[in-house]
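Notebook entry, structure prediction.
Reason for the run: the old model in the group folder had no record of what sequence produced it. Starting over properly, with the input documented here first.
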Amino acid sequence: MESRRLIETRCSASGNHVYWFRYSECGRRERCCRLRGPKGRDSFPSRADRPRGENTSVYGQPLGLPQHSKVKMILKKCVKILFITIISLSVLENYPTKPKKDPIKGNCSSKDFGVVCDGVNVNDLTSILEKEVQNFTNGKGYIEHLTIKDLFVENKTLAQNWIDTKSFRILNLSIEAPKIGKIENSAFEGYVFEELNSLSLVSLNISTLEEGTFKGLQFLKVILIKRSEIHQIKKNVLRGMAQNLTKLYVEEMICPLDIYNLIGTIPLPNLTTVTIINNNIESIKNDTFCHVKNVEIVQLYSNKIEDIGCGNFHTKSLKLLDLSSNNLNTLEPCIFFNHSLFGINGSLFVSNNEWSCNCDLYWLKQLRAAVKTIDDPKCASHSNKSFENVIFCKKESSGDKTKGWRLIGLIAWTNFKIFTMNDAR
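New structure, fully documented this time:
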């Protein structure tokens, strides 16, 4: 039987009828109420006998419960919620949880080509290397090749003394760590880096390369920066290694690259190879290569270059210049004076560009016919035909239009003869 609570009250509207109201759980907040008629059955009052009042509905149903009933219901709900909460907390407290796993610690191991450290925390790196120093150095006191992958650093910063030891030195170092977002000044200064010959920085997310980033690497000869997101390169960034650096490689950089700040602000007397490829470079400013007096190989292919300033490549030591696979459509003849590109061992690559074969570029056609050290460029403006198959100027045979270009060809030929004699000696 459904439990019911009866409330009897006398209706002021009819006076001689007793109304009783039944409250049962027809719904959470629904109230059931009926009028007890003269025959003892539940029925609705007639329209004339329906009570009217502030606290009754059209059927004699109270609009709300008495105040004490409301309070009692609220208290019951609060007790119920409190009881459920206590039970839940006690169950969760006694529930067996899985033990927390310690973070995976990386390790360092000896490979054929050197030592590889993978997934190591920077705070543990020195102790790990010192523990195995005899195995890693073969008793020589130095690690010939150290490769570090996925290095974990605090605040994404490679700080000073991140390898702090005097037990060994490193000769060649490669770092591939996307979690590194900043390299502090003098991060490579210290006993362990004093004889470093080569440094590779791969897949870093560095906002800025500061001037003092490579301080302490005075004996460094080779540096490679590859697949890194470097937003800004400050001037004189290579100052710390300027005197002994011989090879510079910058490849597949994500952000636009200004190579003037990299090599155009300080003398690099021993730099012989510059390889800057597969980057986002639109132009090469004047005098970018003015401080690399002894450079022999310059590779600038696949860089989206559209313009090259005149004050570049003015060196007699240059033997290979690769400008292929860019967006060049013309070149100034002043770029190619005073170097040995046109000697026996010289090579100039300018193919796979958008060359506009007109009078402004006619000098390059003459130069190519004279020295034979230039590859086979095509004319984008003439359905990719070779230079020799295209008439650059309508009056190519006229001395008026080609006098200047013939002079350039004569100068190039003279340089070719001079350097040929020097090579023969």
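Summary: The radius of gyration is 43 Å.
The old model has been moved to the deprecated folder.
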